[in-house]
Input
Amino acid sequence: MDSTRRRFRSVTAAFMTRALLTVALILIVQLNSANAFAQGTWTTLSGSGMPTPRWWSAAVVSAGDIGVVGGFTPSGGNLTTDERFPVGTPTAWGPELPIPSVQTAPAYAGGAYVAGGNNGSGPVATLSIVTSPFAWSTGTSMPTARQAPAGALGGSLFYVMGGNTGSAVTGALEAYNPSTDSWTSVAPMLSPRSDLGADTIDGIIYAAGGSDGTSPALATLEAYDPATNTWATKASMPTARADLAVVALYGLLYAIGGRGADGSPVATVEAYNPVTDTWATLPSMPTARWGLVAIVASFPDCGICSHVPAIYAIGGALDAAGTTATGANEFFVPQCGTVNVTPTSLSFRHKRKQTVTVTNTGSVNVGIFSTLGTFSPLSIHSDTCSGNVLVPSASCTITVKSSRLIRGALTDTLTINDSACENPQTVTLSGAKTAAP
Output
């Protein structure tokens, strides 16, 4: 039994790593024009609506594709179905293996974890995990059964916060460790609530909106620091709402859709900047809805905007009573920025090690996906850019090193993928002979 569990943990951890790399490093979206991209826009994927309209679902990412799992539909009640959206062929939705248990209104995060929810009889503590492309396993249940909690990743841990236990809303925060298949209870939220959304920026977990059982829609934003096991109150959202979707991308927290105090669905999109503790209103979704899912995923054949991220918003309810569900599939391309790379060429004729500086010269955050290129005997010696977000005026560096003397001609290219408007950035590498260090 122990050896089986160890193998399960090992396979799960390895798959989590691959899944997170897929989500974090291969973010590509298709645009109609460079101008539209620069302003930040929503686009409805024509003919790519989800086959089974639903709300209160979960979203996962597997093999680079999106899966929408479980949820509720007025015509069929609680669902266990998993429908796959191949982002490379957006009209080709198809079924996948169903989630093992009914989990309506669960928490989800990391492209692989689905926790809690309601099974039709009441709140559950179930944990379902994607362990290989669209295949499921069941992990140890949460200490607290609850519906409508929120989930977020913090380092290697999966955090679940808030929710409704069936008798009251809770502020409980519990952390799942996949390496031990176990949960730990940590500091609860300052404001107990359900129907909220959450995600992580720079290791800090942000929990936005929701309902406390008295107020049907809250504007509350709280931040949890795993290092100190403490919560702090942050600037409230401009628009109070519950049943919203929350996703983080390039240093900003996006609050998408939801239902207002009167229960009506909203199309509102607002972005929180943790550096300035301020919110900004962005273009609204084409379709107002609550109970939707949102996730960052890839979209190939991007042309000029290769490796630029998009946020997908899928499903939801179209009216306050929840009599009509939608399969709407819309994606948002955030405003892009500008960067300056210096120098744009490196000669290894006299030096074995040289550095490139990337500076954000625009007014919006720029994410650096990866640095590509350079072949033996050249290599990346140090890199403070990849996987980081550059706020306006910030810089990062990439140092290229030759491992040996070079006899003869050298020609290579350092390619830097990022979310800037003119992406990617390239640096020419050349030299006839590298001197000794």
Summary: Residues 1-39, 300-306, 433-437 have pLDDT under 50 and may be disordered. Residues 42 and 201 are 23 Å apart (CA to CA). The first strand starts at residue 41 and ends at 44. The radius of gyration is 23 Å.
